[in-house]
Design brief:
This is Polar organelle development protein. InterPro entries: Mitotic_Regulator, Sel1-like, TPR-like_helical_dom_sf. The protein has 147 residues and is mainly α. Helices cover 65% and strands 0% of the residues. The protein has one domain: Tetratricopeptide repeat domain (Serine Threonine Protein Phosphatase 5, Tetratricopeptide repeat). The C terminus is likely disordered.
Length: 147
């Protein structure tokens, strides 16, 4: 963070990138996810969707739910590489299986012409209805009937 924010020294994106990537190589799954976010947003590192996708994949393979969701989005939109709807579904399914409502919504969209209805996919995420997932799927918080 010292080089990326210029704390006590001049900002140096090259050095910042070197140190962030070094930390990510042997770091925690959270470090890998954070590098993916930094590259995808372009802050404080230079925006690079290819590297973002690589770091999200490393974290996703270690079970990081937000990395799995972000990777699904990147594959579904072709960010950082070729568009691959099969891989997008795979990663959205992994994240939805951990209860991530945004991943559940994405999976519904990706499978809208598949065998499962969006409602069936919604019910699979977390084993039952979830107000936050319902909001993501429908755009409204109509959860009162679920108690």
């Amino acid at each position: 963070m010292i080089y990326s924010q210029g704390i006590g020294t001049a900002k140096d994106p090259v050095r910042a990138t070197f140190w962030f990537e070094l930390a990510g190589q042997d770091g925690s799954v959270e470090d890998k996810y954070t590098l993916g976010v930094m590259y995808s947003k372009g802050e404080p590192l230079e925006k690079n969707d290819v590297k973002a996708r690589q770091w999200f994949e490393r974290a996703a393979n270690e079970g990081h739910v937000l990395a799995q969701y972000n990777l699904a989005v990147m594959y579904s939109e072709g960010l950082g590489g070729d568009r691959d709807l099969q891989k997008a579904r795979h990663w959205a399914d992994k994240a939805a299986g951990q209860g991530d409502p945004e991943a559940t919504r994405l999976l519904s969209v990706l499978n809208e012409r598949g065998k499962q209805s969006p409602f069936e996919i919604l019910m699979v995420a977390g084993g039952g209805p979830c107000c936050r997932a319902a909001y993501c799927a429908t755009g409204s918080a109509g959860c009162r009937s679920w108690g």
